[in-house]
């Protein structure tokens, strides 16, 4: 988080709040969201893309009512992909016209709820869905604005991207096969649907603009073909190219992701150049960052419970540090081999100096019943670490709480927001009663 600082006694303050106080008041594991960090990243994206409404916060990264309010207040739009996310957004009073609804298998009930709520745009993902939504909208006498999701044959990851002719995955309409052009034909033929844009999403945790640029070039290429086929008038309302999410963040000091302005600038240049080449009017460029807004500003606080030294042979020892959460609040290490940074935050290390001094290579593990339950695979933590010490894992704001589970009947952690020396509870800690509430017998 941007507002973290170490006190002379070694304890860390997050936005002016002592982590020991947070642990005392709210318990651990605890997600601590730096509110100003989150909001400033919203504002940075808004500035970079020239209009806050063109930045759709991807709520799958992390959503609760208060987060939806922050996003609304910053003027951003909201990307949702389920009826549940829609319900949270509406509960927060999020302006429905700034909501975009994604997903490869939205139910009829979800489509109906979205149209009834006045959701701004719905991203069409299959031929079945085009017919389904056209019907839902027609029965309500509504003309629903839609985007067509195009699979451009680009797959991007942190430091690499692959541009192929087609992509073997479930989302969108393939550009190469002609399905994307056919989807547009069907949308233009449906009087209850209005085509306002094309959409492409190439991946997540991406560090360079190359993959986005290839995607943008291919989407503009399709746009040009569509104009040739249908003429400018038929496509009058098609004004937006949405290039999805995916901008990466730093999980450790080794990561150096580009700022949003860099990506925005590269995309602007690329799209403008391609449009000029094709003789097209330049569309508005929208994006859907989730991780880059929610990720960096949150830490998870854990309490150390037990420590074990395991002989690895050749005189090597691994120190296992067990904390009171694990794969139920952060499955990313187990699922994606994600790498995190972890620090002792409740005191100084044994020598009273930086926590890195006199450190032992440790593996921070959870309390779940499987050996893959690893939070941080390798972390240098102070020699004299012991039960009761608080550890913080950084950059856990995206895809941790939102992917949390009740594995081993572990209640989900609480989430607090910190700002200017004050803490506020956003989501209370789940209780055993909450889980028993679902028991039908
Ligand atoms: N838009 C669409 C259509 C998406 O599918 C996604 C992410 C985003 C935007 C936001 O992407 P972001 O800016 O956050 O990278 N659970 C995985 C990430 C899955 C992302 C799925 N889609 C993880 O923890 O790394």
Automatic annotation (TrEMBL):
Q: Which residues form a coiled coil?
A: none
Which residues are reported to carry the modification N6-(pyridoxal phosphate)lysine? 60
The EC number on file is: 4.1.1.20
Orn/DAP/Arg decarboxylase 2 C-terminal domain residues are 299-397
- Tell me what reaction this enzyme catalyses: meso-2,6-diaminopimelate + H(+) = L-lysine + CO2
One GO BP on record is:
lysine biosynthetic process via diaminopimelate
What is this protein's name?
Answer: Diaminopimelate decarboxylase
Say which species the protein is native to: Amycolatopsis taiwanensis
**The encoding gene:** lysA
């Amino acid at each position: 988080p941007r507002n973290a600082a170490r006190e002379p006694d070694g304890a860390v303050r997050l936005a002016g709040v002592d982590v020991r106080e947070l642990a005392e008041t709210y318990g651990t594991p605890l997600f601590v969201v730096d509110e100003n960090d989150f909001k400033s990243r919203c504002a940075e994206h808004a500035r970079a893309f020239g209009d806050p409404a063109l930045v759709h916060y991807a709520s799958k990264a992390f959503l609760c009512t208060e987060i939806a309010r922050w996003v609304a207040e910053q003027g951003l739009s909201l990307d949702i992909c389920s009826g549940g996310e829609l319900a949270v957004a509406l509960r927060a009073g999020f302006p429905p016209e700034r909501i975009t609804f994604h997903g490869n298998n939205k139910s009829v009930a979800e489509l109906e709820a979205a149209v009834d709520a006045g959701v701004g745009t719905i991203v069409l993902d299959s031929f079945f869905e085009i017919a389904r939504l056209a019907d839902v909208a027609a029965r309500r006498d509504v003309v629903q604005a839609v985007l067509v999701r195009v699979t451009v044959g680009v797959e991007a990851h942190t430091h690499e991207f692959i541009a192929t002719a087609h992509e073997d995955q479930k989302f969108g309409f393939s550009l190469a096969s002609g399905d994307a052009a056919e989807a547009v034909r069907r949308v233009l033929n449906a009087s209850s649907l209005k085509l306002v844009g094309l959409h492409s999403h190439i991946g997540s945790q991406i560090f360079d603009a190359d993959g986005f640029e290839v995607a943008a070039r291919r989407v503009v290429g399709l746009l040009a073909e569509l104009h040739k086929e249908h003429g400018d008038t038929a496509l009058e309302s098609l004004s937006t190219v949405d290039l999805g999410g995916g901008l990466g963040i730093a999980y450790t000091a080794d990561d150096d992701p580009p700022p949003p302005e860099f990506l925005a600038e590269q995309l602007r240049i690329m799209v403008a150049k391609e449009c000029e080449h094709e003789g097209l009017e330049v569309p508005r460029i929208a994006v859907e960052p989730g991780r880059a807004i929610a990720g960096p500003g949150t830490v998870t606080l854990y309490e150390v419970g037990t420590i074990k030294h395991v002989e690895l042979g050749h005189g090597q020892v691994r120190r296992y540090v067990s904390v009171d959460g694990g794969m139920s609040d952060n499955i990313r290490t187990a699922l994606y081999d994600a790498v995190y940074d972890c620090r002792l935050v409740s005191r100084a290390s044994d020598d009273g100096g930086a926590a890195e001094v006199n450190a032992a290579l440790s593996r921070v593990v959870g309390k779940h019943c499987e050996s893959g339950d690893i939070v941080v695979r390798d972390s240098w933590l102070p020699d004299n670490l012991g039960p009761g010490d608080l550890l913080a894992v950084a950059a856990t704001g995206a895809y941790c709480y939102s992917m949390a589970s009740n594995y081993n009947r572990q209640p989900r952690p609480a989430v607090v927001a910190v700002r200017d020396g004050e803490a506020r509870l956003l989501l209370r800690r789940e209780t055993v009663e909450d889980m028993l509430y679902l028991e039908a017998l």
